[in-house]
Design brief:
280 residues; alpha/beta; Rossmann fold; five-stranded parallel β-sheet; 10% strand
């Protein structure tokens, strides 16, 4: 299938119900001597996924990261781990399954490690879809392809899996971005004023507050599934408009921290729940 000395981190990307785990399970089943499937729903936490991925790479195996990986921040984590092992290739397969198809599959799904009802699955799907950001060529990958439902199967043969991997291997290599230019402290100091002397001219515009607070799904990434459901239930009991009530305000007022505490679930309780971001 591949050079035995070649190591690959294969990052699967797609909504829940898009078919990622079906492919990942077939990949490991047919080629268990070369690939390890790292599935968060089965392992129980992102930490365990990291542990298995690193240990497998150390053993010379390739790994398949079987998670939703719905935005650049999620994917960057696995790129970083791949870069800890020089010479490792980073491939991405995007499962471009339409939302309606994913929803239909979730309605008929009867067993899943972390989704216990179709209603719960549809709620998570809706939130993932709103925060989903497709991969771009400047995230550090070497190759990337997209699979549509017609390209996938419910029962992959070894030939089917090989065909998809060969599609990735034969796809155009993504050119690596240039490394940022490092500027010394002395050079930065000279650039602060036209004559190269004096103190830095600081921006005196008033601070308007952070504009990039973490989204709910990024809280779920760290805290678990209850970041979805505890936040929603606390809002529903106090307001008829969750879209307005559940969002923390932006700014530097003292009320901000109070609003955010209402929005976030208890951290201890969250840690005891499975991280829903691994679902397929």
């Amino acid at each position: 299938m591949s050079n035995s000395a070649e190591r690959i981190v294969l990052i699967l990307v797609g909504l829940i119900g898009s078919g990622k785990s079906t492919f990942a399970a077939a990949l490991e089943h047919h080629f268990s001597d070369q690939w390890r499937r790292c599935n968060q729903d089965e392992l129980g936490s992102r930490t365990q996924v990291e542990f298995l991925a690193r240990n497998s790479l150390r053993a010379g195996l390739s790994v398949c990261i079987d998670r939703t990986n719905f935005d650049e921040k999620q994917r960057a984590h696995w790129v970083k781990i791949a870069n800890e092992f020089p010479g490792t290739f980073i491939w991405v397969i995007v499962f471009s399954t339409p939302y309606e198809v994913c929803a239909s599959r979730l309605k008929n799904r009867t067993s899943h490690p972390t989704i216990h009802s179709p209603e719960q699955g549809l709620q998570i799907l809706s939130r993932f879809a709103s925060d989903y950001r497709p991969p771009t060529t400047d995230e550090g990958f070497h190759r990337i392809i997209s699979l549509h439902p017609s390209d996938t199967s419910l029962n992959y043969s070894s030939a089917d899996v090989l065909s998809i991997l060969e599609r990735v291997r034969s796809s155009p290599v993504i050119s690596r971005p240039a490394q940022p230019v490092r500027v010394s402290w002395a050079e930065r100091r000279r650039q602060t004023r036209p004559d190269g002397r004096g103190r830095r001219q600081h921006d005196t515009s008033p601070y308007s507050g952070s504009s990039d607070r973490p989204s709910l799904l990024n809280r779920v990434w760290e805290q678990g599934t209850s970041a979805i459901f505890s936040a929603r239930s606390s809002v529903d009991s106090s307001s008829g408009n969750p879209a307005l009530e559940s969002r923390p305000t932006h700014g530097t007022h003292a009320s901000d921290s109070q609003d955010e505490q209402k929005f976030l679930p208890p951290l201890k309780e969250s840690r005891d729940l499975h991280d829903s971001l691994g679902v397929d």
